[in-house]
Amino acid sequence: MAEAKNGKKNLLEFEKPLIPIFKKIEELKGVSAHGMDMTEEIKMLEKRIETLRREIFQNLSPIQIVQLARHIMRPTTLDYISLLLEDFVELRGDRNFGDDPALVGGVGRLNGKPVLVIGHQKGHTTKELLARNFGMANPEGYRKALRLMRVAQRANRPIISLVDTPGAYPGIGAEERGQSEAIAKNLREMAALTVPFVTVITGEGGSGGALGIGMGNRVLMLQYSIYSVISPEGCASILFRDATRAAEAATASKITAKDLLEFDVIDEIIKEPVGGAHNDPATSAQNIQVSVIKHIEELNKLSPRELIADRYRKYRKMGIFIES
Amino acid sequence: MAKISIHEWFTRKKKAKAETEAVSARLDIPGNLWIKCYKCNAALFTKDLEANLKVCPKCNYHFKLSSAERIKLLIDEGTFKELNAEIRSTDFLGFTDSQPYQKRIEDSMLKSNLMEAVITGEGQVSSIPVALGVMDFSFMGGSMGSVVGEKITRIAEHGMEHKLPVIVVTASGGARMQEGIMSLMQMAKTSAALQRLREFGLPYIVILTDPTTGGTTASFAMLGDIHLAEPGALIGFAGPRVIEQTIRQKLPVGFQRSEFLESHGMVDAIVNRQDLKSTLTKILRFYKD
């Protein structure tokens, strides 16, 4: 679980100007331990950190946002589930091949009301990441997700999907078991869901692996998340033939929440606390809750048919082209 | 001749080899007398190869077909009517890699003599009317951007409007990265349209040809009621290079080829090109007789 107020641990390169102030605070705390009261001074320095952080975060470049989206301490799906849901029960397996730890799901209560949540699962340590295959799902993950979406549909409960994946796993087994078919089928079946469906991109929205659980009636993005057809590194190495030009690729491919809102690909940006979601997971979770509940309540007014039509309209209009 | 260093000699030799390879690749255009089979290296008389539907008579290697050749192969002569030919791609991101996307589009149009990576229309297969989409790898690797997604969606809608079975022949490297997220959204759009087609009770038949990968495979290429594939076609989600880099080991022989997909249950039948139209006819007659 992401620890609140991370301090100087896990600071990103562009946050380095904060380090001297953190050091100073530590020094002062050391002095306090010897009986001198430094509370005022420490408070002042903490305020300075807050101000400086605000300044730094006001002008983030796309590649810096990519770093935040991938931050090792960024709250994961299970972090948000434990912060947001009561009575959560995790549901596992695709009833066909196995259970995919990279994609989790289950039922619980959000603000007292039953919901089904699915989402990619990463981790905060190398060990956790390995156990979760870095959030890269195999076909059984997508098939589990579809099974759970249908559980929600039969129970007439809303679905919330949390997207945070570098992409669907590119492995031999994944190809053998039909990674393409699993994702394609999810896309088709998500289009037919008769219950309210809200997607939140919480971290990395990696291509088909993200879209495979991401066809909500509403798609929301956390402020420092990304959503793209290919990773900036992949884009740089294929199109620029130079993987080191990822920063450039991140800017050119328009992958930030702000860009995607302009293209009408997403419906809303959910604000993150200063310093990013990992700096204050509880506030981030709270912001997600407020936004998701608002959208579910709106969608609750629609009949099953209208929900399908609403989703169809949203995706039917995607695309920019010239027609003479 | 002036003295050259060993290094230079190797560089020249490498360059010469690359040029020879470029020439032999160029042989793959009508008008040239001979062509070398990519698979078995047999020297083939171009006329013979074309008479054999561009299938190597020695090793059954299926050369790529252009969309026009594919239409000629499958659709009764004189019955094809193209639809939505006038939709064009545009560089809405202002995206430049080694060259601006807009220039890439224009160059592709000139080089391939096509407007986009898919041709859609209506025609008859053994007198059965169908709605058809045929992808063409020679236009930017058959990549799916807004136009490909829109034309596939519209041909599904056309099928619904006129109660026609829908057939799509795939040949695509995946999503068109120059269109960013919009290319990804085409996967959602086409799949949603195919969901409607399905509810309409109309058949959707996919013919997978070499190569079909990425976002195309992970959307409309894998949503057929029936999946036919040409022999030896590369069909997959991730490209073989990406997989090799991820798992850091060599891939097994035949991995992601049609035969691999058939044995893993993803393809109904592998059909030789000369049998493709007759097989398609039998399937269409199952639906409509």
Tell me what the structure shows.
The complex is a heterodimer of chains A (324) and B (289). Chain A is α/β, with parallel strands linked by helices and 324 residues long. Chain A folds into two domains: 13-59; 66-316, Alpha-Beta Complex (2-enoyl-CoA Hydratase, Chain A, domain 1), CATH 3.90.226.10. Chain A is 46% helix and 16% strand. Chain A has 14 helices and nine strands. Chain A is globular. The mean pLDDT of chain A is 95. Chain B is of the alpha/beta class. Chain B folds into two domains: 1-63, no CATH class; 65-287, 2-enoyl-CoA Hydratase, Chain A, domain 1 (Alpha-Beta Complex), CATH 3.90.226.10. In chain B, 40% of the residues lie in helices and 17% in strands. Chain B contains ten helices and ten strands. A seven-stranded mixed beta sheet of chain B has the order 3-5-6-7-8-9-10, sandwiched between helices. A two-stranded antiparallel sheet of chain B has the order 1-2. In chain B, strand 7 (166-172), helix 6 (180-199) and strand 8 form a beta-alpha-beta unit. The longest helix of chain B is centred in the first third of the chain and has 21 residues, at 6-26. The radius of gyration of chain B is 20 Å and the shape is globular.
